[in-house]
Amino acid sequence: MSVLADSDLVQFVERGWCTVRGAFTAEQARAARAVVWRRMEAKRAIREADPSTWPPAYDIEEHLTDPAVLGCFTDRLAAAIEELVGEGRWTGERRWGFWPVSFHYGADHPAQWPAYGWHVDGNWFRHTVDCPRQGLLLVGLFSDIAPGGGGMVVSGGSHRRAARVLASHPEGLAHGELFIRVLAEPIGDFCELTGAAGDVVLGHPFLFHTRGFKRHGEPRVISNSEVPLRAAMQLERAAGDYSVLERSIRAALAEPPPPPPPDAMACRF
To answer: Pick from 254, 262, 268, 253: which is nearest to 182 by CA?
Structure first.
């Protein structure tokens, strides 16, 4: 039985992400969150019981290998990943890495959406339209995130523009070069990723995103990780057995650029 519904696959292709609700349990999220708090206290003296120690935001730039954390990468989540990237086409490596924690980041900012910090992950490799280094952007929610609670903000459809930019540069682009070219025009269709602890967002590797403003609620704990592929994507398969991820890129390259969405605005990285 499939984990993702047909509507999830359509949303992934058209807007650049879909969500696995309850990929792991609230209890598992709570245990993993305790590991995150212990690590923040050890690294920066940020203590859960003492809000006076809380900065606006803090990032743990490492993979956490505690069993309580690794257990949140469930078989159900792995099955959903394969529904997007193709069975046997990812490395199968189960890990959670890079932990952006928001305490009160941008709480008083007057704008609804951030105009800065927009990016795709992957500053450790050169980006190409078929790059296997980050088959998916994996965003695990390890705390409940209500609207206004600091959820990651994504720009729906930005993965299509990024695909067209990368296809026009077969030599590949460095991180900053990709940002400059994609953000040369306004982006929009903004959405804050909200949900319950245990939900996981499966994002397109070309989906532009940024840290959302944290206006209320408990500290927001998420993990950004990647789903590396075994080999480069194939956008011309003789057998036609394209993965959903490959189909999304083919669709972006086959369609004319759409008009800017109504909420489009100039953004920067």
So the answer is: 268
- In the chain, what are the domain boundaries? 6-254
220, β-bridge pairs: 102
Give the pLDDT score at 165. Answer: 98
Band (pLDDT 50/70/90 cuts) for residue 1 is: confident
**pLDDT band with cut points at 50, 70 and 90 for residue 55:** very high
Residues 91-105: b if buried by 16+ CB within 10 A, e if exposed: eeebebbbbbbbbbb
β-bridge pairing 209-210 and 220-226: unpaired
> For residue 220, what pLDDT is reported?
98
Instruction: For the domain made up of 6-254, give the CATH fold.
Output: Jelly Rolls (2.60.120)
Helix (H) or strand (E) segment spanning residue 75: helix 75-85
Q: Which amino acid is at 12?
A: F
